[in-house]
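Supplementary Methods. Inverse-folding protocol.

Structures were first reduced to a discrete structure-token string of length 229. This string, shown here, constituted the complete conditioning input.
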């Protein structure tokens, strides 16, 4: 298995503490390249967490350092979105493959002009070698000469490129459709035929619920007044 050293960690000092190898919790790089990248990363991670909230064996995280070779802390990567099936929920500071005993099932990388090539080459080969079942790349900056949404599925030991039609590609592992809306990336449930709700949609739903409760209380008060007259 041909694994590559992650260039994002090349500046990190990997010290030894009491004879044990130190695996850093940060690589010193920013969480996302732009506000758009950061906001979308949060939307996707939190949306998937809510979607799998009732499944104790699905762990969802984002931008967490993932170490895949025991004893070699230079060999790591920080996927933007990582979904691990068969892995119990719980807060983690880093993800060690040899301890979790399961590679991520799905990875989504949010590309930029500066990372798009590496996402399509080095990272694709790495995730393929690690056995990541599905790998998706989305570029919110909308490149003019390259597709904004790309998907791969592991067939045997190699990735097969998925066909993206009208900005949509289905994830068999997630049982969700990734949809490029022309402005952002959304996740669509085929069962409900609805997108996983965004932060704004959840806030609006909560606001409507509060207004409805207030209206019910107002009507109850009006009814009580009528009964007393």
């Amino acid at each position: 298995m041909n694994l590559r050293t992650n260039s994002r960690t090349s500046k990190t000092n990997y010290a030894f503490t009491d004879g044990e190898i130190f695996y850093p919790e940060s690589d010193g790089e920013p969480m996302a390249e732009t506000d758009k990248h950061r906001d979308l990363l949060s939307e996707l991670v939190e949306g998937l967490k809510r979607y799998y909230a009732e499944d104790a064996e699905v762990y969802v995280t984002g931008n967490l350092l993932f170490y895949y070779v025991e004893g070699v802390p230079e060999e790591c990567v920080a996927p933007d979105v990582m979904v691990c099936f068969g892995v119990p929920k719980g807060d983690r500071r880093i993800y060690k493959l040899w301890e979790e005993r399961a590679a991520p099932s799905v990875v989504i990388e949010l590309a930029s002009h500066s990372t798009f090539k590496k996402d399509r080459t080095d990272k694709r080969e790495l995730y393929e070698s690690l056995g990541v079942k599905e790998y998706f790349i989305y570029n919110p900056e909308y490149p003019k000469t390259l597709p904004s949404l790309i998907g791969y599925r592991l067939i045997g030991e190699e990735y097969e490129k998925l066909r993206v039609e009208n900005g949509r590609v289905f994830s068999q592992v997630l049982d969700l459709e990734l949809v490029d809306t022309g402005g952002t990336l959304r996740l669509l449930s085929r069962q409900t035929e609805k997108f996983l709700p965004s932060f704004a949609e959840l806030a609006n739903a909560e606001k409507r619920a509060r207004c409805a409760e207030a209206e019910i209380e107002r009507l109850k008060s009006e009814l009580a007044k009528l009964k007393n007259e």
